[in-house]
Amino acid sequence: MSGEKIAFDSGFSINFGASNQKRVYGFCYESFENDILKNQVHYEIEIAFLQDDHGRNSIFEINRNQVYVNNKTSDSKIKKIAERASQAIFPLRVKMKRNGKLEEILTMNAIKKRWIIAKEEILEGYKGETIYKIIHKIDTVFLDDDLLKESICRNWFFHLYFKPFYVEYKEKLRCKFIWDSPIFGNQCIKYGVVHTIQKDYDNDDKIIINADGIGIDERSIEEIMEGYDFPKNDFVDQSAEPVTSQMLVDYKLYKEDRSIFSVTGTFETKINQNKQHKIQVEIYHFADTSSFRPWSDFAAKESQRIFQSYQKFDDDDDDIIDIVAASRIRQPELPKREMILGPPRERIELYIHEEPDLSTKKGFWNKMKSIFKK
User: Fold this and answer.
1) % the chain with pLDDT above 70
2) 43 has which bridge partners?
């Protein structure tokens, strides 16, 4: 640790302050069975931070590049159709809540239009009952706003990137949340998670947040994988052992604007006595140079602090700065001058100045390896 204390905004809170910038992130997902790698997915994500109507940088424009499965592009028909359908989602614009969670998909109509075009292209190239069933399932999701948002939020990148980091951590520097993580595709496991923020910046001036969780789902592993939303023993007289699962996700945020530098997470779930399922996910910012630092919002925060220091907090109906009143509070009152009758000793002239009228790419894995050297 660097030993330098984190500069919290108010109390023990931090906020998101990224300026209008673009970032490229590398994403890698790996699934294991008893520590044997079974599947790997990686791609690059481009993100631009944009301002909303209130001047807050809470709009994210996101583009995804080519997806590689086990270091190859899609080869089977079903995977090609799924990849073509997912391309209709991008470019994607989302709005983030103040606490960091994803609030709204802003490009719903554009996604639907792109999907209709993509669907026509798919149906021109592929025929058969299986294809029609796949298209119908995708239709069901893409043409329903709620289902589409839910599907996007269950993507591992979005699931981990948009979390409530920008909150009040209290004196113990921690807070509790519930995560629903997509451990088996669309089937999620519920975790009780504690977010803990380290009090010091690390040696590279990053903010460290650990998300440590344990499964609190009452369903058994079989019920989860079969798609049940509730434990069967709530309705039938039988006992099933709740799923055993744990997770740990480590976040690094830039000191300057509290945006995400990296995410590394592990989710381990017991399938049975002989089988353990593990997921590892990594997200890293591919900076242009090794010395990259984002633009700092220190000046803007300092201006806001000064502004707030002049506010009259004793009057809720008046939040306008009263400079005169403030100066009276801060300056000692001058002694009154003695009144002398008769003409003034000096001639007093007032001059009013009138202002003039002014009304007129490196390879993916090389990049990933270079990250670990930082």
Assistant:
1) 78
2) 27
